[in-house]
Amino acid sequence: MNTLIYSKSTKYKVQSTKTVSLRLFSILFFLFSSITFAQVQDTTKVNQLDDVLVSAVRVTSKTPVSFSNLTKKQIQFRNLGQDIPTLMNYMPSVVTTSDAGNGIGYSGIRVRGSDATRVNVTINGIPYNDSESHGTFWVNMPDFVSSVESIQLQRGVGTSTNGSGAFGASLNMLTDSYTKESSAEIASSVGSFNTLKNTVKFSTGLLNDHFEIAGRLSVLQSDGYIDRASSDLKSYFLQGTYVGKTTLLKALVFGGKEKTYQAWNGIDGATLNSNRTFNSIDQKYDDAGNPEGFYDNQIDNYQQDHYQLHWNERWSDNWSSNFALHYTKGKGYYEEYADDWYFKNVLFSDETSFSFLGYTPITVDGNQVNSTDLIRQKWLDNDFYGTTFSANYTTDVLQLILGGGYNKYEGLHFGKVIWARYASQSELGDRYYEDFATKTDGNFFAKVNYQVSEQLSLYGDLQYRHVQYKADSPETGLVNDTFRFFNPKAGLNYKFDEANTMYFSYARANREPNRTDYENGGVRPETLDDFELGWRLNNEKIQLNTNIYYMAYKNQLILTGKLDDVGAPIRSNSEKSYRLGLEVDATIALSEQWMVRPNFTLSANKNVDLNVTGTYYGTKDIAYSPSVIVGNVLVFSPIKALHLSLLQKFVGEQFMNNIELPAAKLADYFVNDFNVSYTFKPKTIFKEIVLSGLVNNFLDKKYVSNGYMYDIYPSYYPQAGINFLAGLNLKF
Predict the structure, then answer these.
(1) What is the pTM of this model?
(2) Which fold has domain 2-731?
């Protein structure tokens, strides 16, 4: 959740450049936008200059990297309101989960057991991961997939063009390309748990063969499967494009506003069996510890707005370049009821005490009062801005990319008490903590693919990364750390014939700790050496990808299975660990009507000679890393307009801590979904009318996809049983 990076601190004066930075970006944005709509070239030929950006940030079959693509066409009939991780659930080595239980709101993704802090996400090559937590909060971009052209998931380290922090996996999203013809679209869907989504899209098409304006507005609401796990989500997307003979300019503004009722507490085993949907996160108690109902506004309330400016230029047949400016503004809070009895007697926390809040004890009815029930808001006000750039040289035998990026984060954390049963001398608006954190992240890289012969190509990639992080709070202490990382990558690609290709690659990656790691103390940067050996088969009937990987870690930051006071996963270093696995995925055309896309991953994920606070456990499974993951999509199209899809996912058993405690084991699960769509092509008014339906978990499997450990006691996140979504899409 956005609150993962909130922390408490003493007050000090904040000196920030964010106002100046915003003004500077606004000037540049206006300047470049003016150029976009003033520069007219005498040409009627529309060049697909988006390929310049695609080639700069994406890999192809010529690159010795394990990857999968997900196109708009592959997910269009399932795009009925669920989050991007849920839509990616059937990709190789992917495991997803949802706090609300129905894939709307706060959702998460793991790839090869790597959690979201190691899944490096970019949008048009611009970093999206939160700078402090390293996480990705998809809830801030509801229905963003409706403005996404394609998604590429690179497993393992990936390449430097994925951004500075590529580590366990890289997820690259490209937004909609421009279109020649004007269009409009209205899409609505309804479903279980009072889910409702409405989307409006438009494109002017290329005006005078040069200009396009496109946009989207979305509203999404759902009660969630878990009690009170509701979501009220709004988002927008606006893009202006100029297409010249050799120039492509894009100005993008997009963002989202989310109000989400929290559900990250989970439930214990007894409650799982008796009341799967119970949500305890906002429960109130009397002085004797008896439940007194629930607080009705335990919400995350956050808005995030993104600004991107892209300039792609083709200078000659061989040279092209990409330059981008970006700015992200985020601001919001997490509101919670802090029950004095619960904090003292269950959490053993002093956060409701006057000493923690900086209050003076008071006397009430002759008794001294030094703690109180209260309602508090934990605020985050952050700015993230920077640039990415690259120059690309391409010939028949050589592709060279020189590039880099520089990004800065400024985050103000503060807390407010908006109500207290005993308020002492406090005033509305007082901040009981305040701290300021900054992070700068710069990198340069050189990436080359060289075609030695018709069969053999060589790959090399060198990156230097410089990171500086500063923070000062009671949890983190005084932090002023600088990291200098060198990340080399190399590999080869050998083409036996038109259908068969093999590849091998080695890559090193380094990753700095996140804010929560500092709060829990004693952490070190982690290092990964990634080895990949793969075989690709591509003919008219079968596309087959087989890959063996070995990921050797030093000081891997592994999930302990515990959470901090705002739901952030707590991690600790494992001195030596590895992930060894086999991945297979395929697309098989059985006939003109039948198509199947199976995939599976078999893996061993181990901490070697694990030492936890002086206790040695030997070699143990890494938490949240199932040894078996299987996915399958079976598509039947009896006629061109009708598509029937069976979607299946099996996730093997996994542990929620790293010492293989029996109570920490999550059972395996096998879930089946069914998707149907029918497309009408009327002769008047509408270009297309698409009816679609999705039945999730139609066998009504009672399963748990995630959880955590509170000491030796497990908590679980149950997922919804059978539920449905139905949609109507009108295209003009």
Answers:
(1) 0.89
(2) Maltoporin; Chain A (2.40.170)
